[in-house]
Amino acid sequence: MSKVYTVAVVVGSLRKDSINRKVALALAELAPANLQLNIVEIGDLPLYNEDIDGATPPAAYSTFRKQVSSSDAVLFVTPEYNRSVPAPLKNAIDVGSRPYGQSAWSGKPGAVISVSPGAIGGFGANHHLRQSLVFLDVPCMQQPEAYLGGAGSVFDEAGKVSEKTKPFLQAFIDAYSKWVAKQHA
Ligand SMILES: Cc1cc2nc3c(=O)[nH]c(=O)nc-3n(C[C@H](O)[C@H](O)[C@H](O)COP(=O)(O)O)c2cc1C
Fold first, then answer.
1. pTM score above 0.90
2. Three-state SS annotation for 53-108
3. Is 67 in the pocket of ligand 1 (CB under 6 A)?
4. What percent of the chain has pLDDT above 90?
5. Which of 42, 76, 101, 162 has the most CB atoms lying inside 10 A of its own CB?
6. In what residue span(s) does the NADPH-dependent FMN reductase-like domain sit (predicted)?
7. For ligand 1, atom 5, which residue shows the shortest CA distance?
8. What are the domain boundaries of the chain?
């Protein structure tokens, strides 16, 4: 059997009914057999503060860092807040990047999908996030780009993805599985 790669999935919204979380779950279902997607929770991470990040960091920091560093790849599914990434997501990125020189993100094959009910699909958030990922040495899949707009009508009441959007998500996750395998080859 070919290798199964574990993927730490970071969802940029903390909302219970988050569309982004639904997209993350849909991607987990659509993922090819060589990818195992696991959502890594970021809602309980204290706001990053170097003063509390000494010899005994908050348990939530340590858990999060371990979850990311023990994964083979990272996937970001995020809404756009004011043309950038939501604060909890930026916080999670900062937490994972420390202690200095021991970033949990370094070298993990990544991808970004931004999801918004708006028309431009969170383009601003997607590219602000990519700016940090360049610095964090996360090789990021370039194509297909994934800006999912009009996302308010993508899921039915049961949380099932629409037939119209399914091929878009399938193409994205199929390309990502190839990207992850290539980076680990
Ligand atoms: C503080 C705030 C700022 C927002 N800014 C944007 C924005 O810049 N662009 C956009 O497309 N949607 C924006 N939205 C709307 C979100 O895209 C929308 O609430 C979306 O459903 C959030 O994703 P979720 O359903 O996964 O929580 C904003 C929402 C909030 C709460």
1. yes
2. CCCCCCHHHHHHHHHHHCCCEEEEEECCECCECCHHHHHHHHHHCCCCCCCCCCCC
3. no
4. 96
5. 76
6. 6-150
7. 81
8. 5-184
